[in-house]
Structure formats: structure tokens, C-alpha cells
Specification:
With 299 residues, the chain is α/β, with parallel strands linked by helices. The longest helix has 22 residues. The protein has one domain: UDP-N-acetylmuramoyl-L-alanine:D-glutamate ligase (3-Layer(aba) Sandwich). The structure holds adenosine-5'-diphosphate (ADP), 4-methyl-5-hydroxyethylthiazole phosphate (TZP) and magnesium ion.
């Protein structure tokens, strides 16, 4: 299945059979073993996160109690932390949870929703630099903001354009986040017990990287921007796959599953309400081969 193609002026090589096999294996393994991925996530989209994890074949457990999260991490396949809506106690609680997950060597996914907005969110996201996640999944603006916050690139010049807070929606193109995503992924890998980490950037064409190789995943549906929680639930499903697969495979499998399912949902729906229902059905019905045979461009 390997070969070459040409996209947007960039030579791109399509993915190898072994990546596709690992993706199909992750999709099947979740359906066969129903792994638990627990979540500490925002109040807006918590229901869609749980339903998407169930539709992908996993199980869900949501909690905001630090000792509950740490005890559940011991029996769960992975943990998902999303900073979309914050309460005052989160500042200390999330830093502490991250440190304990690191001590226990437990994998987790971070969705840095609205990175760059507010002192409390910034303090929380900065605290994760010392106890980093296994995977970061966000939109382009969030990835650019987190990279700047963790100061992984060259120091910004005084006259340089600064990144601006973007709310929960992206104001940057996926392509403008490539270097930030690679730097973050390398940092995650350097700090992971097994040396593996990944960053997934969502948008019109998603991008996934382990810090070395960049994978571009075209397709999907713009209707995803018309339901709340498309990105949050993608983070939750990435955690579901992280329970059975290494970070790069988990990130690729989740993003590809979302692209294929959203294309089916767009064809079968008539607006945001029916789209969300059709999307959950498609997550459930899509085959592992449909996911693994997707276009994956390397380069
Ligand atoms: N313009 C688009 N075309 C196709 N798919 C999109 C588009 N924008 C977002 N998506 C998809 O929607 C999902 C959520 O991504 P995104 O909207 O970037 O996240 P967030 O909600 O966190 O900002 C991803 O599966 C992504 O591929
Ligand atoms: C609207 C909103 N406000 C705080 S969190 C949130 C949900 C964001 O969801 P997503 O990032 O998946 O669009
Ligand atoms: Mg989001």
C-alpha cells in the first residue's frame, strides 16, 4: 500500500502497511477488550466524550475528585484531562494529579482547550511541563499557545508577532502549528518512561506527529465545527486507543476514525442535531479496515 502522491505543492509519501496494521489492530483491540479510559473533562461536552468512547468500543468514567482520579488511574488503561471549564480548586488538583500519574507511570492525554486564556488555565498548563502527558490533542491555536507557554522554541524577539488567545475555536491553520507540534511531541517522548509521545492537531486536515515524522490526515467534515465537543471527544477517544496502543498509533487511529465517521454522518444527516446522532452511529458501525485504509500522507 506504500506509494507516493503530491499534495498542496508538497511531495508526500503514503503510509506503510505496518502503520495501517497497527491502526486496524488498535480499532479491533478496543472493540474486543472494552478498555476503560477515565476523564477529568469540561462540563459542556462531558456527555459526548463518554458516548463517543462507548461508541468506539471502550468504557468511560468521569470524575473531578483527585484521589478518585488517582485510584482509578491504577485500574484504567489511560486517563484524559481536558481544561475547557475550570473551577478554583483545579489549579492545585490538576498539578497534583499530573505528578501522581507521572509517579505511577500511567499514560494520559491532555486537551489544552483555550490554551492562552486566563491566569489559572495558564498556571495549570505550565504545571504540566514538569509532569507531561503522553499525548497532547488540540486545535492549531492551542498547540501553538502551549508550545510558547512551555518555551520549547527559540525565545520570542521583542518585535515578533505574539500568539493570541483563541477561545475554544482555532484561529490558526493546522500547517502553522507543525513546528510547535513537533517540539511538543519530542518533549513528551523525552519525558516518557518508554520514550514515546505524540501530538495530534485537528482542523481541516489533521496532523499527527511523534516529533520525528509528520502524518497528515485529509478529509472529515466541516460539520464537526457545528457541534460542541468534536475536539473534546476526539481527545477522549484518543485516550481510549491509548489504553491499547502506543501514542502515535492511538493518535492516528482516533483522528482517522473521526474523519471517516464524520464523512458518513454528513451524508446521512440534515443539520447539527441529526449529524451528532449519525456521527455516534458511524463511530460504532465503521470497520477497522475502513479506518486503516484512509489516506495518510507522510512528509
Ligand atoms: N474544516 C474542517 N473540515 C473537516 N474536518 C474538520 C474541520 N474542522 C474540524 N474538523 C474535524 O473536527 C474534529 C475536531 O477538530 P477541531 O474542530 O479542530 O477541534 P476543537 O473542537 O478542539 O477546536 C476533528 O476530527 C477535525 O478533523
Ligand atoms: C464551548 C466550551 N466552553 C468551554 S469548554 C467548551 C467545549 C469545547 O469543545 P471543543 O473544543 O470540542 O469544540
Ligand atoms: Mg477543543
Amino acid at each position: 500500500m506504500s506509494g507516493s502522491s503530491y499534495t498542496g505543492g508538497t511531495a508526500a509519501v503514503s503510509a506503510t502497511d505496518s502503520i495501517r496494521e497497527r491502526i486496524a489492530q488498535a480499532v479491533n483491540s478496543v472493540r474486543e477488550t472494552t478498555p476503560l479510559a477515565q476523564s477529568f473533562t469540561n462540563f459542556v461536552t462531558i456527555n459526548l466524550v463518554a458516548n463517543a468512547q462507548l461508541a468506539a468500543g471502550g468504557t468511560a468514567a468521569m470524575s473531578f475528585l483527585p484521589d478518585d482520579i488517582v485510584d482509578t488511574a491504577k485500574i484504567a488503561g489511560s486517563t484524559y484531562i481536558n481544561v475547557g471549564t475550570l473551577l478554583p480548586f483545579y489549579k492545585d488538583a490538576l498539578a497534583d494529579i499530573a505528578r501522581k500519574l507521572q509517579y505511577l507511570g500511567k499514560p494520559w492525554v491532555l486537551d489544552p482547550v483555550a490554551a492562552g486564556i486566563g491566569k489559572t488555565r495558564t498556571a495549570i498548563l505550565q504545571s504540566f511541563k514538569a509532569a507531561p502527558p503522553t499525548v497532547i490533542r488540540g486545535n492549531a491555536s492551542e498547540i501553538i499557545a502551549l508550545d510558547a507557554m512551555w518555551e520549547l522554541g527559540a525565545p520570542a524577539r521583542a518585535d515578533a508577532e505574539t500568539t493570541r488567545p483563541a477561545g475554544v475555536e482555532a484561529v490558526d491553520e493546522v500547517e502553522s502549528s507543525v513546528q510547535a507540534a513537533k517540539r511538543l511531541a519530542r518533549y513528551l517522548a523525552q519525558h516518557a518512561p518508554n520514550g514515546k509521545g505524540a501530538v495530534a492537531v485537528s482542523g481541516e486536515a489533521d496532523l499527527v506527529t511523534d516529533g520525528e515524522t509528520v502524518y497528515r490526515l485529509p478529509g472529515g467534515s466541516a460539520m464537526m465545527t457545528k457541534i460542541t465537543g468534536a475536539g473534546c471527544s476526539l481527545g477522549g477517544v484518543t485516550a481510549t486507543y491509548l489504553a491499547v496502543a502506543e501514542p502515535l498509533t492511538a493518535s492516528l487511529a482516533a483522528s482517522l476514525l473521526y474523519n471517516r465517521a464524520s464523512e458518513i454522518a454528513e451524508r446521512e444527516s440534515n443539520g447539527p442535531g441529526s449529524f451528532q446522532v449519525a456521527f455516534l452511529d458511524a463511530l460504532w458501525n465503521i470497520t477497522a479496515d475502513q479506518v486503516a485504509e484512509s489516506r495518510i500522507l507522510i512528509g
